[in-house]
Write a structure and sequence with these properties.
The termini are far apart. Helix 5 links the parallel strand 5 and strand 6. By secondary structure, the chain is of the alpha+beta class. It has 3 domains: 275 residues, BirA Bifunctional Protein, domain 2 (2-Layer Sandwich), CATH 3.30.930; 118 residues; 156 residues, Threonyl-tRNA Synthetase, Chain A, domain 2, CATH 3.30.980.10. The chain contains 18 helices and 18 strands. 39% of the residues lie in helices and 21% in strands. Helix 9 crosses helix 12, helix 11 packs across helix 12 and helix 13 crosses helix 15. It is globular, with a radius of gyration of 27 Å. Strands 1, 2, 3, 4, 5, 6, 7, 8, 9 and 10 form a 10-stranded mixed sheet that branches.
Length: 633
C-alpha cells in the first residue's frame, strides 16, 4: 500500500464503525503553550479526553501530522523520523477494550494483510500498591484474537526493559510490562501523577521483522528491544482511572480510548522491510538524492546522510506550510536547525547548488508537496509552493555563505582536542552553526563539548540583547495619546490586510506604536512588491472609510481560539481574555487577543489622515518589518 492508500483504508475502516473523520491539527499548537509542536494525535484532543464534549461526537478518527524535536539526533537509523503521521481513533466515553483491540487486530490482519504470527503485544503488569490491577482483560482479549487465527498465545511477565534484556522472549506472544512502558498519563508513571489527574494502562502492538538480535543492546531480545527486530506499530491507551488524594486510583465515570499508530511504521511492516525510508514518499526523496549525488543509498558511508536529508526536508516542508519561518528562537530555530543539518549532509554528498532549481533540498520539498498535497491541502496551491521553495532556498543560501568559513573555524578549534563553551558560542553567533550541529561534528571526531559553558554564554547574550532592546524600544504602545490609539487600531487592520494579500502564514512577531508611526514585525519570507504594498494600503483605507465599530469582548480563551482570534507569537494568555473585533464579532474583519486601547469606530482614523506604508524591510531570515503612519493627503 502507498501512504495514501493506507491512510484512507484506516480512516474508512473506522468510518464504517461510526467514527467521524476530523482534520489534522496544525504542527504549531494553537492552544497549548507548553510545547513547540504537535507531537501526537492525542495532543489536540486532550480537552475532550478530559471530559469536554467534542462537536463531532464520541467516536473520532484521523491522521495527524506530528513532529518530535527530541528525535532529531536519532534520525539516521532505519526507523526514527522527526515528522510522522499518527493514525488515530478515539472513543470519548463510548466503546472500550473489547471493541478497540479486535478492531485494530482486524485492520492489521484483514485489511493491511499482516501475518498475525509476526505480531506481538503488551499489557500493563499492574501496580497493587496504588490500587491499579493487572490488565488481565486486555491480555485475555489478545489471547482469544490470536486463537481465532490458530495461534497459541502464551502470556509472559517481564516488568522493566532491563528485565526484558535479562529474561528474553521465553516463547511468549503477550508480554506484561510495568508503568514505564504500558501506562499513560500527562505526568508519566502513576507515582508522578497529581491528585485529580486521569490516566490508564495501554496495550502496544509490535511487528517482528525476524532480523537477528544485536547483543550490543542487551543479552536477550524482547518486544521493546532497540535492536531493530521489533517495531511498535500501534498503541491503544485506555484512560480509565483518576488519582485520588490518598495516592490510590478510582475508576473514571467515563472511560476513553486513545489509539495512535505510526503510518510509516505500518507501511514498513506491510512491505516487510524494517527500513521506513524504503517506503514512499521517503523512498522517492532518497532516489532523487542518489541520482544527483551519484552515490548509492545502500553504501553504508552515505546511508545516514540520505536519511537525514529526506526526513529533515519533509519535516521542514510541513512546518513552513503551517507558518513557521527560520529564525533563532522557538519553532523557527528548530526549522533552521533541520534545514542547516540537511544542507550540511547534502554538502557531504557533493550536492552543491547554484540556484533553487538545482537545489536537492528544494527538489526534495517538491516531492513532499506532490506526495502529500491530496491529504493535506495546506501544501497545495501556488502560494504554498512558492513560500516553501523560497524559505528553503533562502536558508540554504544564507547557510552556504557561512558554512565554508565555519567549517574552517570548527576544524581549527577541533585541532585543540576539545571544544569550549565559548568556542561553541562563537560558531553559533558568528558562523550560524546551531549548537546541535557543533555537537554532532564533534561526536564524529570523538571530541567533548562543554555544553554547560555554552548555555552560560547563551544566557549572558540573551540578557545583553534584552537590555539593549528595552533601551531601543518600549514594547507595545509608547503612550495613550489619540494618535497612538488610532495607529494601534490601524495596526490591527494592517495585520489582517497582510494576511489577505500575502497569505495566512503571516503572523505578528513584534510591534511598537508611537503617535508618529506604527511598526509591525511579521513572518514572511520575501520582499513585498510595490503592488502588494499598494493592495495592503487600499484594504486598510477601505476599512477606515467603511466606519466599522471596534468592539471589546471578554470571553474564555477557548472561545476566542475557536473564533480564530489572532494572538501574539509566543505570548501566554489567561483562561479569560479580552478580544477586540473590528466589525461585529459574528462578522468581524479582524479579531485579536488585545487589552486595548482602541478607537470606537475605524472612521476616527481618518481624522489623522490616510494610511501609508513608509518602509518595508527584512529584520531576519523569514521576518519582515513594516513602518507605517496616517498622513494627511
Amino acid at each position: 500500500m502507498t501512504y495514501d492508500e493506507l491512510r484512507r483504508a484506516y480512516i474508512e475502516f473506522f468510518r464504517a464503525r461510526w467514527h467521524a473523520e476530523i482534520p489534522s491539527a496544525s504542527l504549531v499548537p494553537q492552544n497549548d503553550p507548553t510545547t513547540l509542536f504537535t507531537g501526537s494525535g492525542m495532543q489536540p484532543l486532550v480537552p475532550y479526553l478530559l471530559g469536554k464534549s467534542h462537536p463531532a461526537g464520541t467516536r473520532l478518527v484521523n491522521s495527524q501530522k506530528c513532529f518530535r524535536a527530541e528525535d532529531i539526533d536519532e534520525v539516521g537509523d532505519n526507523r526514527h523520523t522527526t515528522f510522522f503521521e499518527m493514525l488515530g481513533n478515539w472513543s470519548l466515553g463510548d466503546y472500550f477494550k473489547k471493541e478497540q483491540l479486535p478492531w485494530f487486530f482486524e485492520f492489521l490482519t484483514d485489511v493491511v494483510g499482516l501475518d498475525p504470527r509476526k505480531l506481538y503485544v503488551t499489557a500493563f503488569i499492574g501496580n497493587e500498591q496504588r490500587g491499579v490491577p493487572r490488565d488481565i482483560e486486555s491480555a485475555e482479549i489478545w489471547r482469544e484474537l490470536f486463537a481465532a487465527k490458530g495461534i497459541d498465545a502464551d502470556v509472559v511477565e517481564i516488568g522493566s526493559e532491563s528485565d526484558g534484556y535479562r529474561l528474553g522472549m521465553r516463547g511468549g506472544r503477550i508480554f506484561y510490562y510495568n508503568a514505564r512502558k504500558n501506562w499513560w498519563s500527562r505526568a508519566g508513571a502513576p507515582e508522578n501523577m497529581p491528585a485529580g489527574e486521569p490516566g490508564g494502562p495501554d496495550s502496544e502492538v509490535f511487528y517482528d521483522f525476524g532480523t537477528s538480535h544485536d547483543a550490543k543492546y542487551g543479552a536477550q531480545c524482547h518486544p521493546n528491544c532497540d535492536c531493530g527486530r521489533f517495531l511498535e506499530i500501534g498503541n491503544s491507551v485506555f484512560m480509565q482511572y483518576i488519582k485520588k488524594e490518598d495516592g490510590s486510583f478510582a475508576l473514571l465515570p467515563k472511560q476513553n480510548v486513545d489509539f495512535g499508530g505510526g503510518l510509516e511504521r505500518i507501511a514498513a511492516a506491510e512491505q516487510e522491510n524494517p527500513d521506513v525510508f524504503a517506503t514512499e514518499p521517503l523512498q522517492d526523496i532518497v532516489a532523487l538524492l542518489a541520482k544527483f549525488a551519484r552515490k548509492s543509498y545502500d553504501d553504508g558511508r552515505y546511508t545516514r546522510s540520505f536519511r537525514i536529508i529526506a526526513d529533515h526536508v519533509r519535516a521542514a516542508t510541513f512546518m513552513i506550510a503551517d507558518g513557521v519561518t527560520p529564525s533563532n528562537t522557538e519553532q523557527g530555530y528548530v526549522l533552521r536547525r533541520l534545514l542547516r543539518r540537511a544542507a550540511l549532509h547534502a554538502s557531504s554528498l557533493g550536492l552543491g547548488d547554484k540556484d533553487a532549481d538545482d537545489s536537492a533540498l528544494v527538489r526534495s520539498a517538491i516531492i513532499t508537496i506532490e506526495q502529500y498535497k491530496g491529504a493535506y491541502p495546506e501544501l497545495s496551491g501556488e502560494e504554498a509552493y512558492q513560500r516553501i521553495r523560497g524559505e528553503i532556498w533562502q536558508e540554504e543560501v544564507q547557510f552556504a555563505k557561512t558554512l565554508q568559513k565555519g567549517m574552517r573555524e570548527f576544524e581549527k578549534i577541533a585541532g585543540e582536542g576539545s571544544i569550549s563553551g565559548e568556542a561553541a558560542f562563537t560558531l553559533f553567533s558568528t558562523y550560524g552553526f546551531p549548537f546541535e550541529m557543533t555537537k554532532e561534528l564533534a561526536r564524529e571526531r570523538g571530541l567533548d563539548v562543554d555544553e554547560e559553558a555554552f548555555r552560560e554564554n547563551m544566557r549572558a547574550h540573551s540578557e545583553r540583547s534584552r537590555a539593549g532592546s528595552e533601551q531601543k524600544f518600549k514594547g507595545g504602545l509608547a503612550d495613550r495619546s489619540d494618535d497612538t490609539i488610532r495607529l494601534h487600531t490601524a495596526h490591527h487592520l494592517l495585520l489582517k490586510a497582510l494576511q489577505i494579500v500575502l497569505g495566512t502564514h503571516v503572523k505578528q512577531r513584534g510591534s511598537n506604536i508611537t503617535g508618529e508611526r506604527l511598526r509591525i514585525d511579521f513572518s514572511h519570507g520575501e520582499k513585498m512588491t510595490d503592488e502588494q504594498k499598494r493592495e495592503v494600503e487600499h484594504i486598510v483605507n477601505e476599512k477606515i472609510l467603511e466606519g466599522l465599530p471596534v468592539v471589546r469582548t471578554e470571553m474564555p480563551k477557548s472561545e476566542a481560539e475557536r473564533l480564530g482570534a489572532e494572538s501574539e507569537f509566543g505570548a501566554k494568555y489567561p483562561e479569560r481574555v479580552s478580544v477586540y473585533s473590528i466589525g461585529p464579532l459574528e462578522s468581524a474583519f479582524s479579531i485579536e487577543f488585545c487589552g486595548g486601547p482602541h478607537v470606537q469606530n475605524t472612521r476616527e482614523l481618518g481624522k489623522s489622515g490616510v494610511f501609508r506604508i513608509q518602509k518595508e524591510e527584512a529584520v531576519s531570515a523569514g521576518v519582515r518589518r513594516i513602518k507605517a503612519s496616517l498622513v494627511r493627503a
